[in-house]
């Protein structure tokens, strides 16, 4: 006859086995979170590149219609300074004989282009693109971001411009249009 006595000491897992399994699960889940975050960053950067490509096309069409690019209005901000070489990029040095569009050297809100690019008998854009990390597209002084915002500056005649934006993986990017 067979012995059906079961030793109760062999039921379950030891504490060490449980700790090893929990540690492995924790490591795998942290790797998943890191790769998901990396994918989100790449997606936002791709959107920024697509937005600025769309803006470049609209600015080019605006130039074809008006023989100049939009010129900054009075709405601008100085809490996000342009890159050091912005004067060379827009064809002016910022000195007294050739001042930048905004006397303090600040950039225009990208939203100041909205009237020029989204209205009129032939709108060039349905709506102005905004940075995915700064949906209001306002600078830091207005409660927004001083890093993740689309910036624009043109020379006084509207014959050249610079668009600037910041990638999360790549830093400040500038695009010169002329």
Question: What report would you give on this structure?
Answer:
The protein is α+β, with helices and mostly antiparallel strands and 178 residues long. The chain has one domain. The protein is 34% helix and 13% strand. The protein has a 5-stranded antiparallel beta sheet, covered by helices on one side. 25% of the residues are buried.
Structure in a nutshell:
The protein is an alpha+beta fold. It has helices at 15-66, 86-89, 114-118; strands at 76-77, 107-109, 151-154, 161-167, 171-177.
What topology emerges from the helices and strands here?
Layout: H1 15-66, E1 76-77, H2 86-89, E2 107-109, H3 114-118, E3 151-154, E4 161-167, E5 171-177
Antiparallel strand pairs: 1-2, 2-3, 3-4, 4-5
Could you tell me the number of beta strands? 5
H/I helix tally: 3
Largest sheet: 5 strands, antiparallel
Structural class, by secondary structure, is alpha+beta
Overall domain count: 1
Order of helices and strands: HEHEHEEE
Task: Supply the key terms.
five-stranded antiparallel sheet, alpha+beta, single chain, 5 strands, 3 helices, rod-shaped, 178 residues
């Amino acid at each position: 006859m067979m012995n059906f006595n079961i030793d109760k000491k062999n039921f379950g897992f030891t504490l060490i086995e449980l700790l090893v399994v929990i540690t492995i699960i924790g490591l795998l889940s942290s790797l998943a979170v890191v790769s998901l975050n990396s994918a989100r960053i790449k997606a936002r950067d791709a959107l920024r590149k697509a937005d600025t490509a769309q803006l470049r096309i609209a600015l080019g069409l605006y130039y074809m219609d008006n023989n100049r690019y939009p010129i900054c209005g009075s709405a601008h901000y100085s809490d996000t300074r342009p890159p050091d070489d912005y004067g060379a990029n827009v064809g002016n040095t910022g000195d007294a004989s050739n001042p930048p569009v905004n006397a303090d050297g600040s950039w225009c809100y990208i939203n100041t282009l909205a009237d020029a690019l989204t209205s009129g008998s032939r709108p060039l854009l349905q709506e102005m693109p905004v940075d995915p990390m700064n949906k209001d597209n306002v600078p830091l002084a207005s409660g927004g971001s001083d890093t993740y915002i689309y910036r624009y500056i043109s020379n006084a005649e509207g014959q050249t411009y610079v668009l600037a934006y910041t990638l999360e993986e790549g830093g400040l990017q500038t695009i010169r249009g002329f």
